[in-house]
Amino acid sequence: MTLSTTWLSQSAKLKTTFSALALCALSNTAMAAAINKSAVQFIGPLGADMQLKPYQTDHRDAIIANLLPSLQKSTDSIRVFGNELDWQSFDKVSALTLGGLQALKFTASTERFSQGSLTLKGIENAQLFIDGEKQTEKNKSYELALSQGDHQFVIITEQVANWNEVELDFTAKSELDTVQFSAKQQHGLSAKQLFDAPTVSYISMAPNGDYFITSQRHYEDTTANQAQYVTELKDEKNNTLYRFESAQPSNITWSPDSKSLVYLLNGELKRLNLKTMQLSVIAKNLAGANGFQFFDNNSLIFSWSKSPTDNGKLTKHYQGLQDRWSYARTTSQVYLLDIPTGLSKILSQGPLSHSLEDFDAKSGRVLMSRSAQAMQLSPQPATELVELNLATSALTVLGQYNTFNQAKYTDDGIYVTAGPDFNNGLGRNLPEGMLANNYDGQLYLLSRDGKKATALSKEFNPAIGQLNVLKNGDALIKVTEQDTVQLYQFDLSKKRFNKVNTGFDVVEQVSYSHERTPRILVTGTTASTPQQLKQLSLGKSRAKVMWDSKPIGYENTQVASLEEFNFTNKDGIEIKGRVYLPHDLDSNKQYPALVYYYGGTSPVTRGFTGRYPFNLWAEHGYVVYVLQPTGATGFGQEFSAKHVNAWGEYTANDIIDGTKAFLDKYSFVDSKRVGNLGASYGGFMTMLLATKTDMFSASIAHAGISNITSYWGQGWWGYLYSAEASKNSYPWNNPTLYSQHSPVFHADKVTTPLLLLHGDSDTNVPVGESHNMYTALKLLGKDVDLIEYKGADHQIFARDKRFDWWNTMLAYFDKNLKDQPQWWQYLYPEK
Fold first, then answer.
1. Which of 103, 206, 268, 404 would give a disulfide with 258, using CB separation of 3.0 to 4.6 Å?
2. Signal peptide span per the entry (predicted)?
3. Cβ(785)–Cβ(778) under 8 Å?
4. How many Å apart are CA 505 and CA 503, to the nearest integer?
5. Can you spell out the DSSP letters for 109-170?
6. pLDDT digits (tens, 9 = 90+) for 713-725
7. Where do the DSSP E strands lie in 683-789?
8. Measuring CA to CA, how many Å separate 783 from each of 681, 773, 776?
9. Where are the beta strands (DSSP E) in 206-249?
10. pLDDT at 30
11. Is the Cβ–Cβ distance between 425 and 436 less than 8 Å?
């Protein structure tokens, strides 16, 4: 008999065999039932001639752990010690005993967080893995806690007397804990895939384009928070020529003639001869050195920093605003290293740190930037662009600027990226009286002497980011273009921006050859497809895929579908957005929804994964609406300038009106079950929205700002960010902005349940910002929770904390939007 639900209504049915379903129960009494063997796959014997089973050796766990990845793969067979073994349905197995090892594999699917226990009968020695993680056994039973979605179970057995007597029984904790078991290979997207799957974390192409380096990173249960890296040298046909040492090399740089490369590893600067593949050590004891580049074939230019010691002092005397940063008194200078002898000589000097911007070996000139003075009161320190003539040791100041990002030589001058206010507002393209948002990057061209500057991007809406210069003098730049990150070539002769067709929504890393027609390596994703590495040539529209993470980390994985959803706000401006839909969505049902935003100076880009995994939320049954409110860069200067001195004024209206438009469009979304969340400035927006509307049923603010004044005056970055967000406004000349736009001043208006998340070591938005709001709401008797992540800064990076963080957010929304509090209660039981 096949059941359409996981619960039986009569006790007489307790012995019914399940068809791909788990447990049944009567009322609130938990009862066990056997999993139908047709829902389970079997393979064995693995290593039939084993004299001793793993549990009889000193290395059981290692033996089992090394076998596990082969069993997890979605393949029909496995070859072990030369023998081809096929997976088969467990109900076809009739042997009494088998040699070697055997394995069972199946999928457990849940529509909600579910708990229970799995009992193994007839198996003497076994290990159970769920989604690759080893489970703890107690009296042949395993306690399970499964989040919504699909979970892979693998049981590796070592001793079975009679396979005909083997049974797997599942007992649910309560009648609400529903689990379906099957042999299906197709599964929904998981958190582990998004975090653990291999990604290309570094790329670098040789100047001649004949070689390139990739570094792949992945995580696994056995190494927990420690990432695993594989760094390889490849030829243009993607063949591996050399694999680097097990540790992760850094500061990789190619010689101009492409005959060798240099890298740092374990404190040693090494050189690899690409013809002989021989290694030599150039220098040691290079703590604080970074940014190595070949100046010519025989020397390297680099930066070398030195941090002062406090010599056990009991106090710290602050001498300027930058002194709030722990590294403010670290000085960095530019050096030149002679490769044959290992001798280094300093090029810059003095009390001011110098940053290497670029160099021209032919003319013997080095381009650097530095702060105008070591410590100063200005919230946005002025930057000097200086040029060093190596032949004369003369240092020339080319200019001093209040906004500055990068500078690179080109044949006709010097490219500079900076905000619209660069060089007395040269790049501004705004209505009279409107203040520019200097996070909206622009491109300029300086003459070599710095006396003449030309704005190149005033009519170009995307925000300029990373700058590179091609051999022909054109600029190759990454830009923020609405909610995407794209690659553009700036044609210097024609003063024109040309988009490079990468096929990505979000371009991540870029490397290129130094040929006249350069070859380009680029990594990236789309909103619905994971990372790829591609190679392309400028001027050609077709890109070649060199590596793809989808068949490696996302095989047989279902991903949410994506729809574009834009609306026009009250000012007649189109607000861009997108909607993620669960892959099995039934438009006749009603779904909960999540609304996500940032609201600060940058849009929420269309990456496949990240800190906020929209595709994963959709997999958990939420319709997800992501919008780009007024104030973000990438939509033109006037759009981004509205962020200045607004502190949520436009953004809140866009989020509220956008959510209303979203609910009007998507009738299958339940308007009574809509949650909202954001982080940093988005966390500020969540708190602020809670004081302005009751349209949301649950809200989450991560690292949010509750009091603009305390944020401005504390932490490392508050005053610096406020130099744009609150330009020319201070608590003494604009108290209304600082108080009336601060959520804590309106805490009495909050009616929505609110979860505050914060790293207790946050140096950007101090954890006190969440404490402010928590204290206010608790005193007011409001529904509020505060959770701190120990040792975490502004972002949650560590693998274990990331998974817990993701689970916490989903569990909170499940409790408030799905009426499913069990997951939250499991994570945070009442004391």
1. 206
2. 1-32
3. no
4. 7
5. EESS-EEEEEEEESEEEEEEEETTEEPPEETTEEEEEE-SEEEEEEEEEEEES-GGG-EEEE
6. 998 889 889 999 9
7. 698-702, 754-759, 784-789
8. 22, 12, 11
9. 211-218, 228-235, 240-243
10. 55
11. yes
Q: What count of other Cβ atoms lies within 10 Å of the Cβ of residue 424?
A: 9
Q: What is the pLDDT of residue 375?
A: 63
Dig out the tokens for 260 from the structure.
């060798």
Please enumerate in sequence order all residues whose Cβ is within 8 A of that of 532, keeping only pairs 6 or more positions apart, or say none: 504, 523, 524, 525, 545, 547, 548, 549, 550
Distances (CA, A) of 431 to 162, 366, 637, 641: 83, 38, 10, 10
Predicted confidence at residue 715, as pLDDT, reads 86
Q: ω before 530 within 30° of 0 (cis)? A: no
What's the CA gap between 163 and 1, in Å, rounded?
23
Amino acid (one-letter) located at 260? S
Using CA atoms, how far apart are residues 622 and 817, in angstroms rounded to an integer?
10
Q: How many Å apart are CA 266 and CA 654, to the nearest integer?
A: 50
Give the tokens for residue 391. Answer: 């032949």
Phi-psi label, residue 12: left if phi above 0, alpha if psi -120 to 50, beta otherwise:
alpha
Question: What pLDDT was estimated at residue 10?
Answer: 29
User: By three-state DSSP, how is residue 749 classified?
Assistant: helix
Amino acid at 231: T
CA distance 254 to 244: 15
Encoded tokens for 692: 């302005």
pLDDT of residue 51: 87
Q: What angle do CA 498, 499, 502 make, to 5 degrees?
A: 145
Under-50 pLDDT residues of the chain: 1-29
CB neighbours (10 Å) of residue 739? 15
Q: What are phi and psi of 689, to 5 degrees?
A: -60, -35
Q: Can you tell me whether residue 476 is helix, strand or coil?
A: strand
Q: Which residue, among 586, 564, 559, has the nearest Cα to 575 in the 3D structure?
A: 564
- CA–CA dist 290, 284 (Å, integer): 13
Rounded to a whole number, what is the largest CA-CA distance in the chain? 98
Query: Structure tokens of 359?
Result: 């160099």
Computed over its alpha carbons, how large is the radius of gyration of the chain?
Answer: 30
Cα–Cα distance for residue pair 574/629, rounded to 1 Å: 10
Query: What letter does residue 20 receive in the DSSP assignment?
Result: S
CA distance 28 to 9: 11
Question: How many residues does this entry show for the chain?
Answer: 831
Residue 403: strand, helix, or coil: coil
